[in-house]
Amino acid sequence: MRPLHAFRYAAPATFYPVAGRWQPFFAGLAVALAIAGLGLGFFVAPTDAQQGEGYRIIFVHVPASWMAMFIYCVMAFWAAVGLAFRVRLASMMASALAPTGALFALLSLFTGALWGKPMWGTWWVWDARLTSTLILFFLYLGFIALQAAIDDPRRADKAGAIVALVGVVNVPIIYFSVRWWNTLHQGASVSVTKSASMAQTMLWAMLLMALAFWMYAIAVALARVRNILLEREAHTEWVQHAVA
Amino acid sequence: MTALLSVQTHLPASSPATVQPSTAAAGPALVALRRDLLLAARHRSEVLTALTFFVVVTSLFPIGIGPEPELLRRIGPGALWVGALLATLLGLPRLFAADHADGTLEQMALSPRSFTLQIAGKVAAHWLLCGLPLVLLAPLLGLQFGLDGDVLGVLVVSLLLGTPLLSLIGSIGAALTLGVRGGGVLLALLVLPLFIPALVFGAGAVEAQASGLGVRGHLSVLGAMLVLALFFAPWATTAALRIAME
């Protein structure tokens, strides 16, 4: 009975304690990896020849941008699973991931601005990547706002799933249209891509930070999904037991 | 309600053609289209509101930015396209609201005829009432921005391809926010980011023409996006409407 086994954890009552056991593990891993990554990035990695010390913000900026894009895809995946197979837990997972994704998009924009001021001399340029990250942030906000506005959780799940799916189809279209638009208006664009190859330690620091953000995202999503579970299943017996 | 009844009594008399075999496949769409057009003919002010909004918004740009002809010629395409986009957005909450309130939408969903086609007909009506007038009025407003004849031509073509795209994408948002708290603002938040590609290529085509570059690439992409939306959007809208009516 393999399929049964696979779906066993989709039952809220089984998932809740399992998520509770794993959550501290991911949280601890996130802290450990972040300490290692930041230590390597801030103290071990060499100073950049052109950008000085200011470049070190990329150890936060680049992983945050990756996560912002990646989490949207994961969110859309869970939303689709929830919509297609009517697995409530999958829809809850999508709702739990959205705030984290939005946070990473905001972090990416914010650190990008902090980096842009000393490097480009301006907080913001209408570069293709910046603009598409901003739009991604708006897509997250739309998803969160729609789910917050609908009282019936089932309807909120399904409506959110459609938004996430329409969004995920549009993300590449938006990205390429913004890139085309940007190359057409040459004026303000500054190339973000660096020509020089990265030092080995910088790459390691960045990968460690990316892993740390992954673990953080998993830990926070599990914690959030547990809260959503308690909220939605408040009438059931197992929640009464779990809370008591 | 009285309008609805009169439409229903009016339809069989004037639309026997829609049930003939040759048009049977598109029949539900045509019936819905005809009905919405008739309803709009009884409430003409609603159509004019969106159009007036378009005129007012595009007139605000010169007032806000300044009357220099050179500057206005530069921002003209973008301003007109943003105006058209906002005017379309303004009409979207009404797309399904009235039919949802009086139960017509549920009857449509329950009827044996294709719900998707009926919704496609409603979206087509929305474009004819909300999008097409904008397309026709745009060259006149373009003159205010000092755009030349051939640029105005491209503006019309780009809007002709772009406004149905806006209506189709917008219908998904309108269906999702149907009967939801704060629906109007939420609709804008959901739909405006998805409008961006249309804006990029639509306004881009007009600007490309103004600066002497080829426009075929822009218009082709706009057309491709329209075909894609024609295929997928009614489907997504129907799914969203079914969720809203559960």
Indicate the topology.
The complex is a heterodimer of chains A (about 240) and B (about 250).
Chain A: H1 2-8, H2 12-44, H3 58-85, H4 88-120, H5 128-149, H6 153-184, H7 200-232, H8 237-243
Chain B: H1 2-14, H2 27-42, H3 44-65, H4 69-91, H5 94-101, H6 104-110, H7 115-144, H8 149-176, H9 183-210, H10 216-245
Low-confidence stretches of chain A: 186-191
The major beta sheet of chain A can be summarized as: none
**Total domain modules of chain A:** 1
Question: Helical percent range of chain B?
Answer: over 70%
What multimeric state do the chains show?
A: heterodimer
Computed structural class of chain B: mainly alpha
Largest inter-chain contact set: A-B, 28 and 29 residues
Helix content of chain A: over 70%
Molecular shape of chain A: globular
Largest sheet of chain B: none
Indicate the structural class of chain A. mainly alpha
Tell how many strands the DSSP assignment of chain B holds: 0
Describe the structure.
The complex is a heterodimer of chains A (244) and B (246). With 244 residues, chain A is mainly alpha-helical. Chain A has one domain (56-190, 197-232). Mean pLDDT of chain A is 83; it is low at 186-191. Helices cover 80% and strands 0% of the residues of chain A. Chain B is mostly helical and 246 residues long. Chain B has one domain (28-245). Chain B is 83% helix and 0% strand. Chain B has 10 helices and no strands. Chain B has helices at 2-14, 27-42, 44-65, 69-91, 94-101, 104-110, 115-144, 149-176, 183-210, 216-245. In chain B, helix 3 (44-65) runs antiparallel to helix 4. Residues 1-22 of chain B have low confidence and may be disordered. Classes of the chains: A mainly alpha (244), B mainly alpha (246). Chain A binds chain B through residues 135, 138-139, 141-142, 145-146, 149-151, 154-155, 158-159, 162-163, 165-167, 169-170, 173-174, 177-178, 180-181, 184, and chain B through 172, 176-177, 180-183, 186, 189-190, 192-194, 196-197, 200-201, 204, 207-208, 221, 225, 232, 236, 239-240, 243-244, 246.
